[in-house]
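Task: complex structure prediction.
Instruction: return structure tokens for all chains below.
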Amino acid sequence: MTRARLVNAFAFLDGPDPAVERRRADGFLTVFLIVFGTEYVVRAIPKWPDLPIPYTVSVALIMALSVAGLRRAWRRTAFLGLAAVHLHVLWLEFPGSANHAYLELFICLLGAFLDVEHPEERRHLLRAARWLTCLVLFYSGLAKVVHGYWFHGEMLAHQLKFSYYRPVLGLLLPGTEFERLVAFTAQVGDGPYRVENLPFVVVSNAVYLLEMGLAVLLAVRRTRPVAVLPALALTVAIEAGAREFFFGLVFGNALLLFTRRDTNTPARWPVAAILALLVAIRLGLVGRIHFT
Amino acid sequence: MTARSKGLLVVAALATLTVWPLVHTHLVRRYGVNPWKLGGWGMYAAPAILPSGMEIFGRAGSGPFEQLSAPSPGLLAAGNDVLARHRWLGRLTPTRPLADRVFAERPAWTELRMVVHQPVLDRHSGMIEASEIVYEHRRHAPPAGS
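Output:
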């Protein structure tokens, strides 16, 4: 009895309609595979002639395994291979590996360990992916509260040292304040980074409040439908500012798991179009935009 | 392995992942681990300011400390590696291997002081201030009978 309860500890995260869960799980893993495979390629493009051999081999393997994983019969084996290669890259880059790389590793492990064709295993996979999404959102907000750099806009003000934040954050600041903050280069003696401008401070505080609040609303079945769109909008806004498009796509795909209908499967085509655009940008074929 | 056993493993993994960010917060506050890294989901919680450098001082016996000058290329590379790791791991960075290399290059020194210069954004003043993290090492005693 206790075991049965324990194994269903995350049952509150089940979707409202079990009939769509199979397609949804399939769509979720498919979108993840195309994002993950493309991410490795796009990251490698600028370093291509000088990319160290272990990374070159990793990129080739990740590409091949991501394509192989699109075929259902090979999916779990492909995910096992992806997890192994990705773990190796994490090890090479440790401790500098990005947090989203850990999220990707966990999704790879879920894809290898659980069979989405099996109803019970599929439930576990979807519950795990949904819980992880809530965790990332909630703890991202909580960390901002704990470290205290968002109450007076200090963190956002500091990020103005990166030019790609300026078009968005500049809209919230009067010209003189914007010029003052942009002049800092994060050297000893720079500051104060505290901002008095109300719209800037409101946005700064809204970020962590929304992150934590939406995570809770997503976890509760009754409030889930009203939280999905704001969570997606928040992710788009944050990632547009930070230009972390790959994390945005991985996380957006996970947020779609909370919608009433299967939205992961239809998301394949727009996601593929965005990825094609990112590849074209990296190859220098379309404009020049900084992103990671 | 049955679906139920797999489910239990997944629940155990999720429980671990749920607790880890709290442990991570403790590591950040106590050891200066960078909130951006190690899976604690603290990206953008604090500015990721690079350490501005490291100085190494040593002394023989109870003599005055003198600064390490003209390190060998190998020692310089090891120092840079420590500094790069320090950016993410803070005071959890292993510094003893570097100390052993310095002792090997400076046989007279018995005591070392490594000073990492780490600018921080002070939460109260909103200013970027200088801070120093100091690591002290003593030469290991030679094995008995040597």
